Amino acid sequence: MEDGDLYVNKVAIEEALFGVLEEECRLEASAGKPATKQGVYLLLRSLLLRFSEAWFQESVKKLQQKRDARSGRLDPDGYFHLPGRAELALEVQRKVLPQFGFQGSKEGSSDMIRHCSAFLGDKDVAQMFDAINKKLGMSSAARQRFRKLAGSFEDLAMEISESVKMGT
Predict the structure, then answer these.
(1) In angstroms, how far is CA 25 from the centroid of its own chain?
(2) Other CB atoms closer than 10 Å to residue 65's CB: what's the count?
(3) CA-CA to 152 of 20 to 30 Å: which in 3, 110, 116, 158?
(4) First to last CA, the chain
(5) What are phi and psi of 39, to 5 degrees?
(6) Residue 130 structural domain
(7) CB 20 within 8 Å of CB 42
(8) Residues 112-155 pLDDT 10s
């Protein structure tokens, strides 16, 4: 079993054990964007569980294969930029983000990343970011790059802007 799969299982167990915390966080979320580590963790966990669904994982693999076939090699950047991934992720984010005070749009997704990045100093939140990015098809090196850039969101905003220009 992959580390990401172990993490998803851990999250599922936590969900069963910590339902009260979840209800608390949902009440917080209904008041707007999550203001606590627990609220951010719940948001990220919700995304992780949705990104872990079979249909989504199959779609990510197809995007990777299409990218590799087009270039004739494996992506040397570890799929940091992957054409079509943002649109695919937005299918999930449109449903999840509004539950946590964010727009279900590209702008809402960027706002959510910026907002959650403020909590990256917390080990659990950082691990959740990494687990999500693994489900989004990023290699270990790409996940580290994302986390580093998310730590200084101005750099990430530039990367996202470049990515949008490149169509990824």
Answers:
(1) 19
(2) 10
(3) 3
(4) 29
(5) -65, -45
(6) 3-166
(7) no
(8) 999 999 999 999 999 999 999 999 999 999 999 998 888 776 45
| Number of CB atoms found within 10 A of residue 43's CB | 25
Chain position carrying tokens 């910590």 = 18
Token match 């090196």: residue? 141
d(CA 131, CA 119): 15
Biggest alpha carbon distance in the chain? 50
CB count within 10 Å of CB 167 equals 10
Q: Letter for the amino acid at 62? A: K
Residue range 38-57: average pLDDT? 96
Confidence category of residue 156, pLDDT binned at 50, 70, 90: low
Domain total of the chain: 1
Q: Single out the residue of 88, 74, 70, 53 nearest to residue 168, CA to CA.
A: 88
Residue type, 38: Q
The residue type at 153: F
- The alpha carbon dihedral of 157, 159, 165, 166 has a sign of negative
What the block records as the tokens of 131 is 């687990």
Cα-based angle 84, 124, 145 (whole degrees, multiple of 5): 45
